[in-house]
Design a protein that fits this description.
Length: 497
């Protein structure tokens, strides 16, 4: 029997799963690590934490399964996108990684737009300059930490740093590279025009592969550290959302998924590079060679619930949360939550907006606030869904994934808001399964990505929309959007204090 490993380098933890060649999970492990916020709006992590988490979880799944190392044919990597890892000439990490939700780079985004031009930037990278993307982080280090920039010899994304530790190769793949704002997204290669206008040396960047391609083999050092074989291939893998698309079978036209992880995403597969000229949603290369995806991203989806649990709900577990809110009527007794804890991407592109509870009264209990958080996050995902509809992207099949998808109540909420059935796959799906499938293609076990997904990715349950709830949420969503419009100027005033 052949085996595959998927490794997902997330924001709060790295999850590793060992699968057999029929994509049945054999063993899994996870390791947590901290996120640092040295200033308001900043977000950093230590790349060595990802490295140790990947190594320790791989050791653990091999030990649990007692599988022969030579039978593990491939590893696929998934991970948080947009982070900046800088290595010096000795391959040492120069500074903490600036990760996806960091909002410090508003001035650098203005600099990028001025140097490239707003229209040209979208034409090449399929996106406007965004604070979360990697290019603005590179410029921030150059502008504020010139010694660190001068010492930089290699720039890597989070999962690609883990790849380097595994293989010694400086490599990335098209889906994750699409979120750096340096890739020519329609042509799937580094943009010489962008790099020249921003004065970034292409030699700092890794080689770009397609997601199911072999990027290297496990090094002797990493093999000794983990128990893997040096014959094990490492696939290109994919950014977390592109990998989740593979793991949920969203690899063909007409299919989409919603994920509620730390951030929230509505993601649709497309055979063509469809671009929103307003830049409200992102068009990236997807993990299927020659295809793309369009996605809207909200900054604080599961993060909103995590923040509330840790600070106001005594760390209630998710079963207790679902039980608590089951008795709260839809609309949370006229309480609305705006989930802008870390600024927002879709549809507002505003790093200054912040979270709000609107309508709070003495009658409200903790359960009302918990439901309002889940509804507010769902409204932000509905914003993404509506833009995809405007772009004439037809969705016939919506899957749910991420930690929030485990809640039947949250899935029903989404179905009611979208007016569309929302499905969930079996256990062990999502980004980590997607990474393993990509490894299976790279190692020659599977023919291609769509064929493997049709064979191994199924549906466990479906939530059907309720017409009365759909109509009600449509009314609340209008007020939700009106609140942002009313507060937009105030957010700028708050940031200036």
């Amino acid at each position: 029997m052949n085996y595959l490993i998927g490794v997902d380098v997330g924001t709060s933890a790295t999850k590793t799963v060992l699968y057999d060649e029929e994509c049945r999970p054999v063993a899994e492990a996870s390791a947590d690590y901290p996120l640092y916020q040295p200033q308001n709006g900043w977000a950093e992590q230590n790349p060595q934490d990802w490295e140790e988490a990947a190594a320790s979880t791989i050791r653990e799944v091999i030990a649990k399964s007692r599988v022969n190392a030579e039978d593990i044919k491939g590893i696929g990597l998934s991970g948080q996108m947009h982070g900046l890892v800088m290595l010096n000439e000795a391959n040492e990490v120069i500074r903490p990684a600036i990760i996806w939700c960091d909002q410090r780079t508003a001035a650098e985004c203005e600099e990028i737009t001025a140097k490239v031009g707003a229209k040209r930037l979208i034409e090449i990278t399929a996106n406007p300059a965004l604070t979360g993307f990697t290019a603005s982080k590179i410029l921030w280090v150059r502008n504020h930490e010139p010694k660190n920039y001068a010492n930089c010899r290699h720039i890597l994304l989070p999962k690609d740093y883990v790849r380097f530790v595994m293989t010694g190769e400086y490599a990335t793949e098209v889906s994750d590279a699409s979120g750096m704002q340096l890739l020519d997204v329609p042509n799937r290669c580094w943009s010489k025009e962008i790099l020249e206008k921003l004065d970034i040396d292409e030699g700092l960047l890794p080689k770009v592969f397609e997601s199911p391609e072999v990027t290297g083999h496990i090094s002797t050092e990493f093999a000794q550290r983990t128990g893997l074989s040096v014959n094990c291939v490492v696939a290109g893998g994919a950014g977390d959302n592109a990998a989740a698309a593979v793991g949920t079978g969203i690899v063909e036209e007409g299919k989409a998924f919603t994920t509620i992880g730390t951030s929230g995403v509505v993601f649709a597969h497309t055979n063509d590079p469809v671009i929103d000229p307003q830049g409200r949603v992102h068009t990236f290369c997807c993990a299927v060679p020659g295809c793309w995806h369009v996605m809207g991203v909200t900054q604080a989806a599961g993060l909103s619930l995590k923040w509330f649990r840790e600070n106001l709900a005594e760390n209630l577990d998710f079963d207790a949360i679902n039980q608590a809110i089951a008795g709260v009527p839809r609309g949370s007794r006229r309480l609305i939550y705006l989930p802008y804890l870390m600024g927002e991407r879709t549809p507002h592109l505003n790093p200054d907006c912040r979270g709000v509870f609107f309508g709070l009264s003495a009658m409200h209990k903790r359960a009302d606030m918990l439901r309002a958080v889940m509804e507010g996050v769902s409204f932000s995902l509905l914003d993404c869904w509506n833009i995809l509809q405007e772009m004439n992207i037809k969705v016939k099949d919506m899957m749910a994934c991420g930690g929030g998808s485990k809640s039947p109540l949250w899935r029903q909420m989404l179905a009611n808001m979208y007016g569309c059935p929302v499905k969930v796959g079996g256990e062990g799906g999502g980004a980590v399964l997607g990474a393993a499938i990509l490894a299976g293609v790279a190692s020659g076990i599977y023919e291609d990505v769509p064929t493997a997904c049709r064979r191994f990715v199924g549906t466990a349950s479906v939530c059907q929309p309720k017409p009365d709830a759909h109509e009600y949420y449509g009314k609340v969503h209008k007020l939700y959007n009106k609140l942002y419009d009313q507060l937009k100027e105030c957010y700028g005033d708050l940031a200036a204090l």
